Structure formats: C-alpha cells, structure tokens
Amino acid sequence: MNMAKAVTKFPWRTALVTGASAGIGKAMAHQLAASGVDLIVVARDRERLNQEAALLKGRHNVRVDVLAADLLDPAQLLLVEERVRSSTNPVDLLVNNAAFGTNGDFYNLPIDGEQREITVNVIAPVRLAHAALGQMLPRKLGTILNISSMSALLPGPRMATYAATKSYITSFTESLHVELRGTGVSVTASHPGFTRTEFQERAGMQGKVDEVPNSMWMSAEDVAAESLRAAARGSVFYVTGRSNSFFATVLGILPRGMRRSLSKQMRQ
C-alpha cells in the first residue's frame, strides 16, 4: 500500500521546508500542499524550486514562496532564519530536512567537506529551530520536524560524520521535547532508513547500496507521509517503515558493543 496516495488533512497553515527541491523534502511539499498548507520552499537550486512552486500552486491553489538559499552560507542561512522568525504569516511547521552525507574512511576524507556536512546537518537545523521557537512559543502553537536517520541509532563506520550529525539531531529533538512540554509546541525526529532519493548518489554510495534488498527500501513519498503524520500527532521519536521500526527496537536492547560489531559487519 502506498500511504502517500491518501490525502491527510494536516493542522498547519504555513510550513517551511528545507531541501524542498528533491527527495523527501519535495515529497513533503507536495503532500502539505495537497492538504491546503501554504509553503515556503528552501533549497539551493532556484530553477528547480521555481518549477516545483509553479506546479504546486497550479495543482493545489496554495501560496508557495520560493526562498533559494545555500545553508552553508551564513548570510543566506540568516535570511531563512529571519523568515522563520517572522510573525507575519508565521510558520506553523518547520521541516529541517536538508542534509547530505559523505562516504569513506574519515581520515581519507577532506576535512573541509566534513565541516560543511556538520554545518548543513547540525548548525542550520539548530539555528532554524531557535528562530522558529522565538515566534511559536509566544503563540503556544507550532511544530518542528527534524529529519534524522536510522544512522543515528548505531555507529556509522565510513559515514562517521553523517551518523554523528544524525545522532545529534535525535538527541537535540528529545531534549527540546522535554523542555517544551506543556507549551503547545512539539518537536519530532523522524528516522528514515534506505529511501530512494538522490542522497546515495551524492554521497558516493551507489555501488554499495545496489546490494541492499528491494524490501528494505522506501519511497520518498511514503517516508514523507509517515513523518508528517508523526509530527501532526506530536510524536517525539518516529521510525519510518515496519522493518525499520522492528530493527530499531532490536537495536535498542542490544549492548553498545554488539551494536558496534553489527555496524562493522553491515559496512563490510
């Protein structure tokens, strides 16, 4: 069953989605628009964003503002923060989706690339969440959806920085959840597993992922649908897909040493 086919009525009026030009972010934008949610779509590629915005407005008759920004650039990130912080047409849902990964032994990877990965995967979501809370808390209304990963749940040899950034996002989300209890604002971390997007190719993993059985893959549309529904429910920790959920449960009861051994076997 493709869960993305059923249109869900989401509770938000305006959502800002980073990484909205492709993959999970693009799927979320389409599903939110189908529910009547106005959008601010953020990504580096203005041309792709403009194409998606025209499609979304034409198909769903919603407002779609394009905010082309490279989250690696402090000045451009600040522009996104200012939009999230604005009390004019306030953002009810912030989706921190933009991220990328690198693949290889850490000591062989260019350190500047690893730092850029940390900036996009951690610094940008933290700054955007801070900006969002500045206008959500006074209104006692709002949702932040952070896209983490199954990689957050066990060590990630040859993707050490990526796994660490996603572990940060999960821990950050759970900490905020405790802080925000009773405020009317919720924070959700969604943990997709293998998802058919451009991520693998960009991370240089195409050869390795070809070995992953089809049964372990999810579509971006299904991941988006499950993640948005979890956020609408106010879930703090959510794993997409039944097989991923089962695997996460097993990981949760394994000693750390066994998780390290398992991660090593999975990367061989």
As residue ranges, the low-confidence spans are: none
Specify the overall morphology.
Answer: globular
Total count of strands: 9
When the domains are counted, the total is 1
Computed structural class: alpha/beta
CATH class: Alpha Beta
Strand order of the largest sheet: 3-2-1-4-5-6-9
CATH architecture annotation name: 3-Layer(aba) Sandwich
CATH topology: Rossmann fold
Rg calc: 18 Å
Walk me through what this model shows.
GO terms for molecular function: oxidoreductase activity. The protein has 268 residues and is of the alpha/beta class. The protein has one domain (8-267): Rossmann fold (3-Layer(aba) Sandwich). It contains ten helices and nine strands. The strands form two sheets. It has a seven-stranded parallel β-sheet with strand order 3-2-1-4-5-6-9, with helices on both faces. Strands 7-8 form a two-stranded parallel sheet. It is globular, with a radius of gyration of 18 Å. 43% of the residues are buried.
Key structural traits:
268 residues; alpha/beta; Rossmann fold; two-stranded parallel ribbon; 10 helices; 9 strands; 50% helix
Compose a concise summary of this entry.
The protein is of the alpha/beta class and 268 residues long. It has helices spanning 23-34, 46-60, 74-85, 111-139, 160-180, 199-202, 206-209, 220-233, 242-253, 256-267, and strands at residues 14-18, 38-43, 64-68, 93-96, 142-147, 185-191, 195-196, 218-219, 237-239. The longest helix is centred in the middle third of the chain and has 29 residues, at 111-139.
